[in-house]
Design goal:
Length: about 325
């Protein structure tokens, strides 16, 4: 299959509307989209990514008015979060409307819904004839793609089109909050922080450690994620480490240990989040064997960065 590269949202939306699969930029990471009214294209998303069929897709809408097309019950907690954080890097899990096919939600009665704020994403979604189901636009298990070049590297020849925009401003996937269950739950940390969410809905909690062994609250949590080919070693600021002979890299906020070949020191958590996945990909291209990553604290965006780092480091333990 020939993959068209374009920076025209109009052209990309025309390909989507005729049943194609189109990668598009958002402020979090690039998404791999298909109209929810095109069952064959939805199937192709799973094939192109190598994604297990029991891992549901997030549905992207252009405006809050479109919510009624995809969700059935919107409780007062969800309402407050929508008012404050839509459009933006937040996904809400709500009761699905019957218009959303089971292939999108992997048979769940809920659906994850997001309204991105990136202007190219909004233009693309505005021109789409139906809501757009989209996971991150990377091969399953690899770091998410935060540039069109990264999408192209993973998916050239497997999808119809890449709508090329600028690199993702946030670089980490959206915060996911489950507003369907009895208590609102943070399913995935992201740029909308737990502190920001709890300021609006104090009852929001993270899944308890006692839930370990229970089926994951979000199906995607049981699959390996974000992992480059290089091994990840987590470290604390200024920790003394013995660096081996193999080519190694470091990313973090503080000065690295001695003897590292490729170094990325970030000036803020925002920069750390924005650069993390592209740094992982660069390390693989440059033949790095080990990446030392500084673990930030749980505060603010630190929680989301820690989550991605620990899951990337535990790739073997997370195996299917
Ligand atoms: O920022 C983002 O969220 C990006 C952009 C493209 O919007 N999308 C993204 O999608 O990260 P994906 O598929 O890579 O991650 C979505 C996660 C998966 O772990 C999936 O299992 C979970 O959301 N999910 C989707 N629908 C769900 C539902 N109804 N209930 C619980 N978890 C759900
Ligand atoms: Mg993903």
């Amino acid at each position: 299959m020939q993959t068209t590269l374009t920076n025209s949202a109009e052209k990309a939306a025309a390909i989507l509307n005729s049943g194609g699969v189109v990668a598009f930029p958002t402020e979090t990471v690039y998404g791999l989209g298909a109209g929810i009214c095109h069952p064959q294209a939805i199937k192709q998303i799973f094939q192109a990514k190598g994604r297990p069929g029991d891992n549901p897709l997030i549905v992207h809408i252009y405006s809050v008015e479109q919510l009624a097309d995809v969700a059935d019950e919107i409780n007062s907690d969800a309402q407050k979060l929508i008012e404050l954080f839509f459009p933006g890097p937040l996904t809400l899990v709500l009761k699905k409307n019957r218009c959303v096919p089971d292939t999108v939600t992997a048979g769940l009665q809920t659906v994850g819904i997001r309204c991105p704020v990136n202007p190219i994403a909004r233009e693309f979604l505005r021109l789409s004839h139906c809501p757009v189901a989209a996971p991150s636009a990377n091969l399953s298990g690899l770091p998410s793609a935060t540039s069109w070049e990264a999408v192209y590297e993973d998916l050239d020849g497997k999808i119809d089109c890449v709508l090329c925009g600028t690199p993702s401003a946030i670089g980490l996937e959206s915060t996911i909050v489950d507003c369907f269950g009895p208590n609102p739950l943070l399913l995935r940390a992201g740029a909308i922080t737990l502190e920001q969410l709890q300021a609006i809905v104090p009852a929001i909690t993270t899944p308890a450690a006692t839930d370990k062994g229970a089926p994951p609250k979000s199906p995607g949590l049981k699959y390996p994620h974000y992992a480059p080919k290089a091994a990840i070693i987590l470290c604390h600021a200024h920790e003394k480490m013995i660096i081996g002979e193999a080519p190694s890299a470091y990313i973090g906020l503080s000065a690295p240990p001695q003897g590292i070949a490729l170094i990325k020191i970030c000036e803020s958590l925002e920069e750390y989040g924005r650069e993390l996945f592209s740094f992982f990909r660069r390390c693989d291209t440059e033949g790095i064997h080990v990446i030392y990553c500084e673990l930030p604290s749980y505060q603010g965006l630190g929680r989301a960065i820690r989550d991605r780092l620990t899951r990337a480091a535990n790739k073997e333990n997370n195996a299917l």
